[in-house]
């Protein structure tokens, strides 16, 4: 070992310092340790370590202030932050200030040693693959706008139309605005559909023709979306997709959703919406529902593994096959969801939104998203999830299925068919729904 590979441990707990000193020494790393910032600054005047393990909660000057000062005096010195009493905000702020990583206590020593080895190896980061992002505007170009005549037809369903038995309320924070908001769900008569209503009583049917900038999207044969937004008469209802997915899979055909500008986004999943529907209770209505039945394939994008695309094809039932392939920690993930065989509430609804720290940070600086992202996303940085434990090993592909199920309900009817999707996001989902709508009306 050389002097340049010294690791400095800064923590006010003697037991943690002793444990880290012993473990690191056994691995062959020279170690120096400090109980507070004053001791650390004194050591730093004598020698510069190769890496600092820095606790956030220190007596006197705390770890975040130390990190901020280090970025000015030693901008290239890597720092791994540690804390036993900090949440996502602290982790994100630490990375914003330049920490290379963040570890929660009690420390998992094997993981910490892996992180140290990577930092000290000076290994260049892997090239980041494109990540379908809720913070960026993405264009889904329709390669072939033509739709086969009769490709989708309405057929009477074996299921009745459904509404809720009573009124229910859910409060939370808006994903894009970061403001407190809420939604009230109420029963509606048969043949009413899913209707959103703003606080000034502007009604917006949950239909593809009511998405924001729909006419412009159709004219240009391309769809741009950073979430699913309904718009009419200068009024908007944002981030409806997770609620729509829960309504879709519960078979709710008629409901009124009273809301301010944005649907609350509790944890980035559809869990709370599915529970809300159970709380209200489901009421069958004495009118048969109708299904949009896919009779011929309809496609958006080119059917190539390396390109985003999706298509609907004939199938007796409703099924989604999704594939994603993004940079670590995601990789390639595939999943098939069949509404007759699989449980939406158990297997899809709990899957949360995800994005990279860099995308979220950039969007917040531009003012296009609010603080809601910090509490409702799986956040990734340098190939790792930095703010939570995954609910499923393949939670990412599950959430993509969730979004697609919600966007498909913008057709106005449950779909009878199979949708096969590769690396898609809201823009591509909406482009397919627009083609399904055209097929249904011609």
TrEMBL record:
Keyword Lyase applies: no
NCBIfam families associated with the record: lpxC
EC identifiers of the protein: 3.5.1.108
Keywords: Hydrolase, Lipid A biosynthesis, Lipid biosynthesis, Lipid metabolism, Metal-binding, Phosphoprotein, Transcription, Transcription regulation, Zinc
PANTHER family: UDP-3-O-ACYL-N-ACETYLGLUCOSAMINE DEACETYLASE 1, MITOCHONDRIAL-RELATED (PTHR33694:SF1)
SUPFAM superfamilies to which the protein is assigned, alphabetical: CheY-like, Ribosomal protein S5 domain 2-like
GO cellular component entries: membrane
Cofactor: Zn(2+)
GO MF annotation terms: metal ion binding; UDP-3-O-acyl-N-acetylglucosamine deacetylase activity
Protein name, per record: UDP-3-O-acyl-N-acetylglucosamine deacetylase
EC primary class: hydrolase
Metal-binding among keywords: yes
Functional pathway: Glycolipid biosynthesis; lipid IV(A) biosynthesis; lipid IV(A) from (3R)-3-hydroxytetradecanoyl-[acyl-carrier-protein] and UDP-N-acetyl-alpha-D-glucosamine: step 2/6
Annotated catalysed reactions: a UDP-3-O-[(3R)-3-hydroxyacyl]-N-acetyl-alpha-D-glucosamine + H2O = a UDP-3-O-[(3R)-3-hydroxyacyl]-alpha-D-glucosamine + acetate
């Amino acid at each position: 070992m050389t002097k340049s590979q010294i690791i400095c441990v800064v923590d006010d707990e003697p037991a943690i310092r002793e444990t880290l000193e012993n473990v690191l020494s056994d691995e062959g790393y020279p170690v120096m340790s400090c109980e507070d910032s004053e001791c650390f600054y004194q050591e730093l005047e004598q020698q510069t370590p190769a890496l600092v393990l820095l606790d956030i909660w220190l007596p006197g000057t705390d770890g975040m202030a130390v990190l901020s000062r280090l970025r000015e005096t030693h901008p290239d010195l890597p720092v791994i932050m540690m804390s036993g009493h900090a949440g996502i905000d602290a982790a994100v702020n630490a990375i914003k200030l330049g920490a290379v990583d963040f570890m929660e206590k009690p420390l998992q020593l094997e993981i910490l040693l892996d992180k140290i080895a990577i930092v000290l190896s000076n290994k260049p980061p892997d090239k980041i693959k494109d990540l379908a992002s809720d913070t960026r505007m993405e264009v889904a170009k329709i390669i072939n706008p033509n739709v086969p005549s009769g490709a989708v037809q309405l057929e009477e369903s074996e299921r009745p139309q459904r509404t809720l038995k009573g009124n229910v309320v859910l409060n939370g924070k808006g994903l894009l605005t970061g403001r407190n908001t809420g939604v009230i769900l109420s029963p509606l008569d048969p043949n009413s559909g899913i209707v959103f209503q703003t606080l000034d009583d502007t009604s917006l049917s949950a239909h593809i023709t009511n998405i924001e900038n729909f006419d412009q999207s159709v004219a240009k044969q391309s769809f741009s979306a950073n979430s699913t937004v309904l718009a009419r008469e200068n009024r908007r209802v944002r981030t409806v997709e997770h609620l729509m997915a829960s309504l879709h899979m519960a078979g709710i055909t008629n409901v009124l959703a009273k809301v301010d500008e944005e649907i609350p986004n509790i944890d980035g999943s559809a869990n709370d919406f599915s529970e809300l529907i159970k709380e209200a209770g489901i009421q069958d209505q004495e009118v048969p529902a109708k299904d949009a039945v896919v009779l011929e394939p309809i496609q958006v994008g080119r059917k190539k593994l390396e390109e985003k695309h999706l298509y609907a094809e004939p199938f007796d039932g409703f099924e989604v096959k999704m594939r994603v392939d993004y940079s670590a920690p995601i990789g390639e993930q595939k999943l098939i969801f069949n509404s007759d065989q699989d449980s939406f509430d158990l297997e899809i609804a709990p899957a949360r939104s995800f994005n990279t720290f860099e995308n979220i940070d950039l969007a917040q600086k531009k003012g296009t998203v609010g603080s809601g992202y910090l509490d409702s996303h799986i956040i990734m940085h340098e190939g790792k999830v930095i703010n939570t434990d995954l609910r499923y090993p393949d939670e990412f592909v599950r959430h993509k299925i969730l979004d697609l199920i919600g966007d498909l309900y913008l057709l106005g009817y449950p779909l009878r068919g199979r949708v096969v999707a590769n690396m898609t996001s809201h823009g591509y989902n909406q482009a397919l729904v627009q083609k399904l709508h055209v097929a249904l009306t011609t």
